[in-house]
Amino acid sequence: MLKSKWCLVIGLLAVALFVTTAAARDADPRGSSQVESTGEAGVILNEGGAVAAEGDVVYGNVVSSLYYSRPFPGYRHFDDIHLQPGPHGDLVEYRVRTFGSTATGADAGLPYNVEAGLWTDVLGDPALGIPDQLIAGTQCNWVGLPVGATSILACTVPAGITIPNGLWMGLEFNQDNCGWRIASGIHCPTTGPPGYSEDFFAEEDLVLGGFAFYYFGACPGANNLQASFVATIITEGQPWACCDTATFDCTNIQESLCTGVYTQGTLCNNLPQPCSAAGACCDTATGSCRDTFEVLCDGYLEVFTVGSTCSTVSCPVPPNVPTLTQWGMIALTALLLTGLTIKFGRRHTVTA
Fold this sequence. Notes:
mainly beta, 2 domains, 22 strands, 35% strand, disordered C terminus
C-alpha cells in the first residue's frame, strides 16, 4: 500500500512537471535586439582546434536574421536541436554565430566572452523535456570577442563523441552587450533539412536555478511560434562499406578508419561482390589506381589485382607514347603532305 502511494505521488509530480514545462514554453514571447552591423568577424577557433575540412552537416541554419538575443549574465540560452534523420558518424565540430554591441547594454563596446556546449535532454527529446547534462568533450570557450560584428565560432571536439538525435545547444555570455544571432524564419520545423528546431528555446537561471521557455514568432503556421538560433553541427561522413582484404570482413565505417577497400555510397549488404573479390584496379594507360571490385574494373587497359589495395600495388607507368591528340596531329600532317605531293607531282599536258 505504501509503495502504491509513493508511485501515485511520483506520477503526479511527473505530470505536474510536464504540464508546467509545456505551459511555460507557450507563456512568454521574448524580445530581441537588432544587430547594429552585419559584418562578419570571421571564424574564431577554440584552443588547438581546426575547422572540419569535410563531414556531414546534420543540423544547420546559417541564414541570419537582423536580430540577436541578449541573455544577460547569470543566464544560459539553450536551443533545441533535432538532427537530420538517418545514420551519422561521431561529432566533429559545431559552430555558432554571436554578436557584441557597441551601443547596447551597460558593457557596450567591451569585448565579451562566450562559453558553449551540447547537452542531453532529461527525457531524450527536447520537444518534451529540458536540458539535462553537458556532453563530455563538447564545451568550448572564447575570450575577448570583438564588438560591432558577428563572430563565427567553431568548436572542434575530440574524436569519439557520439551525440543523440535530439539534444540542446547552450551558450553563456559574461556581459549584457552581446548575444546569440537569431536565424531567419526560413529554418522552420517543416522546411529542413538538415535537421530542424522546435518553436521554443530555454533560458536557465544559473543563480537561482530553473528554466523558462520563450519563443520569437518567426515561422509561418499555427501561432507563428519559432525560436531558432544560428548554429551548425558537423559529424563524420556517412559510414560506408569497408572490406578488409586480409580477413575479407566487411564493416560499415567512416573512410578515415578504413584500411582496406572503401566503397563510397554502398553499405556492406549492397556490395556488388563479396569482400574476397575486392582489390586494386590499375589503369595502364594513365598509371592511376582505384580500390574497387573486379566487376567494376572493366575499363580499357585496366588491370585488376584481387586482395590488394592501391597503397600496396605498383601500377605500371604508362609508356611515353603519343597521346590521342598527338596521333591526330601526326595523321593530319601526313594527310596534308600526301595531298601536296599528289597536287604538285601531277604532270599537266600542254596543247600546242
